[in-house]
Amino acid sequence: MENVYLASENILRYIVEFSTLILEMFGICILVFTAVRSFVFWIKKDDSIRLQLAQGIALALEFKLGGEVLRTVVVREWAELGILGAIIALRAALTFLIHWEIKNEEKALEPKKSNQ
After folding, report:
1. pTM to 2 decimals?
2. Which of 1, 9, 64, 89 is the most exposed place for a label (fewest CB within 10 A)?
3. Burial 49-81 (b: 16+ CB within 10 A, else e)
C-alpha cells in the first residue's frame, strides 16, 4: 500500500511541476507578445499603449501567480513555503498595482475618446 502512495505522490508532483511550467510559459509568452505589440503601437504613436501594456502585464502576472499557487501543492518544508508565500504576495501586490494603473489610464483616455 505504501508503494501505491509513493507512486501516486510522485505522479502528482510531476503533474504539478509540468502544469506550473506550462502556466509560467504562458505568462512569458503573453508578456513577450504584449511587449512586441506595444512597441508597434509606440511606433504608430497610439495613445492607448500604456493601457494595453498594463493589461498584458497583468494577464501575464495572473498566469505566473497561478503557477506559484499550484506549486504550493508539492511544498515539503516551511522555509520553502515561506519563500513561495513571499513570491505570491509580491506578485499579488504587483497585480493589484497594475490593475490600479489600468483604471487610472482608462480614466485618462476617456476624454480623448469622447473628443474624437
Report:
1. 0.81
2. 1
3. bbbbbbbbbbbbbbbbbbbbebbeeeeeeeeee
